[in-house]
Amino acid sequence: MDLKNLIWEQEGRVAIVTFSRPKALNALNEETFNELARVIDRVESDDTVGALVLTGAGEKAFVAGADIGELQALETSMAFVAKARRGQNLFARLEDLSKPVIAAINGFALGGGLELALACDIRFAADSARMGLPEINLGLIPGYGGTQRLARLIGEGQAKMLIFSGKPVTATRALELGIVENVLPAGELLAEAKKLAAELAEKAPVALALAKRAIHDGLATDMGTGCSLEAHCFSVAGGTEDCKEGMKAFFEKRPAQFKGR
Ligand code: CO8
Fold it and tell me: What EC number(s) are associated with this protein in UniProt (predicted)?
């Protein structure tokens, strides 16, 4: 792909996309958003991609937030709203991808950078990483879904601690809080994220997409409606060729060969 601020690589069925804007610690400017939109389209439509890993270039930052220079240039409240909605819509599309997305947080994930990671399915962090929502220190609040996703993920009180104080937390604390699923030595982070992505990319794609749908949409509703959605997704998975293959392979004591239908 022809990209300036992102690097696209593919290893087998895993796409690895690296945020790379070294002069601004990989901060998200409009150009990066446009490129991320193209990456999301590609991942959704490309059958050779089964999982996506997002990471940051260099050792210092995953993504240090929205580009503060661009925010400074906004003159009206409506311009702030438009920018927030654009980011929210893009991160919603990322979250909505039918394929698993893993954030490999290699350094600072601040503001929009943490909000980006929160829109991923699974977060691995380097032991040296720092995460936070420091917008309050700019006289702002998180605007790319952070107030909503963080509170849902770690609870209202802990989310308020992070958002009100603006203080970043260490990777170990992020693990305790449930912001990340795993903390690894920096040198092993990407390899471990890619390893998990490769494993997930071999699962039955329709079942994986349906599990993701049931979890996401279920969390947005009550238990009864969620269970009803689960039963529906379960029945769709049960009608796939991959389901027949999975059960046949079980009794034949061999690995299943999934085809995505
Ligand atoms: N935007 C633009 N440039 C940045 C950003 C950023 N978010 N972060 C770092 N940079 C630049 C610095 O200006 C600096 O540039 P230069 O070398 O030209 O001076 C370069 O990157 C290196 O940064 P530092 O010299 O500051 O490096 P340090 O090691 O001293 O500090 C930090 C590293 C702690 C990560 C520090 O750079 C920092 O605090 N960065 C800003 C973090 C931040 O506040 N992020 C939140 C931004 S706001 C946001 O994300 C809102 C999201 C919702 C928007 C909704 C739309 C309205």
Answer: 4.2.1.150
